[in-house]
Amino acid sequence: MAVTKAPEDAYTAAPFVPEGAGLTALRKAAADCRGCPLHENATQTVFGAGNAHARVMLVGEQPGDQEDRQGKPFVGPAGKLLDRALAEAGMDPADAYVTNAVKHFKFTRAEPRKRRIHKAPSLREMTACGPWLAAELALVEPELIVVLGATAGKALLGSSFRVGEVRGTVLEREIHGRPERLVPTVHPSSVLRAQDDKDRKAAYEGLVADLKVAARALG
Fold first, then answer.
1. For 10, which DSSP code?
2. DSSP letter, residue 13
3. Are the beta carbons of 60 and 70 closer than 8 angstroms?
4. Judging by beta carbons within 10 Å of its beta carbon (0-12, 13-18, 19+), is residue 102 exposed, middle or buried?
5. Residue from 134, 139, 131, 130 nearest 50 by CA
6. What is the chain's pLDDT, residue by residue, as a tens digit (219 residues)?
7. pTM of the prediction?
8. Burial (CB count within 10 angstroms: exposed 0-12, middle 13-18, buried 19+), residue 168
9. What residue spans of the chain are helical by DSSP H?
10. Which of 149, 141, 124, 123 is nearest to 23 (CA)?
11. In a 3-state reduction of DSSP, which class is residue 126?
12. Pairing of strands 56-60, 49-50
């Protein structure tokens, strides 16, 4: 019998999120999430990681190739650059909780066995994954959320979000029923994609400057 897939407007992780669970139980449950089709091609779910009582939560877009293979967020080149930028901004990466708006790697390939190319998740896929992020926020209760890039911003703040308009500022919004303070900035992968060394240096310095705003907001 053919399997009938849920229509896109019915995508949601909600039925897979156990009520009253701690982070360990959430991570285990997320491994079996079938709330949208992204699980079909990804190697595994990549749940959040880090200090369960962190004052700051860093929210990115989705796992990348290395994250998908290792099952941990921000372990690839962008994650290493982020750790360096956090330290330079006066924030200890070990004190943070890091996660993504979408927990499965979405990608495309030009040909079989070729390198997997990152593909931005749709708004519906971000919305479907929202219950996981809401559960993480409710448990960690961070004092500040650092929003890494446009996709994370859209997932948290709506489809009209533009990172260039609000980066490096402290926003106050209600997110998943909780009042939150947020500092948006670019995703560290955008620094790596800069055209040349000069542009990359400027992009990195901009990221560090935004993270210094976050560090000051934490006091």
1. G
2. S
3. no
4. buried
5. 139
6. 344 456 667 899 999 999 999 999 999 999 999 999 999 999 999 999 999 999 999 999 999 999 999 999 999 999 999 999 999 999 999 999 999 999 999 999 877 777 888 899 999 999 999 999 999 999 999 999 999 999 999 999 999 999 999 999 999 999 999 999 999 999 999 999 999 999 999 999 999 999 999 999 998
7. 0.93
8. middle
9. 23-30, 65-70, 77-88, 123-140, 150-157, 163-166, 188-192, 197-218
10. 141
11. helix
12. unpaired
- Distance between CA 214 and CA 169 in Å, rounded? 8
Which residues have a Cβ under 8 Å from the Cβ of 29 and sit 6 or more positions away? 16, 17, 18, 21
DSSP string, 79-123: HHHHHHHHHHTT--GGG-EEEESS-S--EE-SSTTSPPEE-PPPH
Coil, strand or helix: which one is 50? strand
Are residues 40 and 5 in contact, defined by beta-carbon separation less than 8 angstroms?
A: no
On whether the CB atoms of residues 25 and 18 are closer than 8 A, the answer is yes
Number of neighbouring beta carbons within 10 Å of residue 64: 23
CA–CA dist 89, 83 (Å, integer): 10
Structure tokens at 75: 């372990």
Distance in angstroms (rounded) separating the CA atoms of residues 133 and 140: 10
